[in-house]
Amino acid sequence: MNIDNSGQAQVIGRVVFTNPDGSAYDPKEFDAEEIRQLPNGHLLWTTEGGSQGAENRSPLVIESDKTGREIRRIHPPQYHVPNYEDVPDTKEAKGISPNKGPEGMTISPDGKTFYTINENSLVQDGPSNTPQSGSKTRLTVYDTATGKPSAEYVVDVDPTYAPKADRGYASLATSPDGNLYALQRGYIPKQGNRAEIYRLDVNGATNVLGRERLTGTEVAVKREKAFDFVDSKLGNSAHPGGRGVPESPENVEGMTFAAPPAGTSATNSLSAGSRSNGRGTGVSKTPVGNNRVYLISDNNFSDSQRTVVHSLDIAPR
Questions:
Q1: Statement: the pTM of the whole predicted model exceeds 0.85
Q2: Predicted confidence (pLDDT) per residue in 184-225, tens digit
Q3: In 3-state terms, the chain is what percent helix, strand and coil (to 5)?
Q4: By mean pLDDT, which of 79-83, 86-90, 274-278 is the weakest?
Q5: Given a cut of 70, is residue 51 above it in pLDDT?
């Protein structure tokens, strides 16, 4: 996809992912979510995992070459793998909650590290969020070369927007200056979607790698809200729900930063960084010094939802 400086998006090609031998994947085995590009042109993408009938499916990060052929599978810590179809006692259940696995993934500018974030809490870490209380999810850090986890941190998930609404993390992205950002979004019945972007700082957070079950004493990642669609000037008319909220941003699930302009010092200093983070074409900073961010929505195969590309600016830290 090519995105110009005005935010207009145009699909210019496609890559079809396949097994190592080039054969087609069984779509029932995967729930693809986030995709990023490594400095060597290979593609990393997450599949959320979950449970289908009596079969538990592990979340995975898959590396494919530039033609789409699978090269390797990277596994999360074992306690992320669901077992709740195998255990009669729910107190012993563990792993990702149904449809709440690694929605977000991003790569450091040098390509040596990548991060995943689960949409919501692991089963053993407590219940998912409610209108009254939030929950805890995990940000896992991996060494790209070995595919092994190197650290893991707790990230707060905010309470849901309303009863029977959902809210969780859908995407991670790394800014040109190396900061980590997370997209949190959810749906409010009869109103539409809401979404916010948070800047994350792991300094001082407890490394919980290898800790199968959280104790509640962990120091979480520091968060700073960088953007909220409710506060934006996205739309002047109230949503049909009549609650006065701006036009729904739709089910935004993908986020990326614009690449530095060709030939600039930012490009030279980042080298292959623009490729490593999957950032699109366009300017990395606007005339006022903000970082350009693109978001894309998932229409869930529904005629009532749209696939929309948003272009917005976030002030650097």
A1: yes
A2: 999 988 888 999 999 999 999 999 999 999 999 999 999 999
A3: 10, 40, 55
A4: 274-278
A5: no
Cα of 35 vs its chain's centroid, Å: 9
70: its two tokens = 């699978």
pLDDT tens digits along 90-120: 667 889 988 899 999 999 999 999 999 999 9
Hey, what are 261's tokens?
Answer: 């302009």
Q: Where are the beta strands (DSSP E) in the chain?
A: 2-3, 9-10, 32-37, 43-47, 50-52, 55-57, 60-64, 70-74, 102-107, 113-118, 135-143, 149-157, 166-174, 180-188, 192-201, 222-228, 252-257, 291-297, 309-314
Give the span between the Cα atoms of 234 and 29, in whole angstroms: 37
3-class DSSP state of 140: strand
Would you give the distance in Å from CA 236 to the centre of its chain? 28
Joined together, the tokens standing for residue 292 give: 């350009």
Residue with tokens 């729900």: 241
Instruction: Give the residue among 37, 36, 83 at the shortest CA–CA distance from 59.
Output: 83
Q: Which residue has the tokens 């995992």?
A: 49
- According to DSSP, the residues that pair with 292 across neighbouring strands are 313
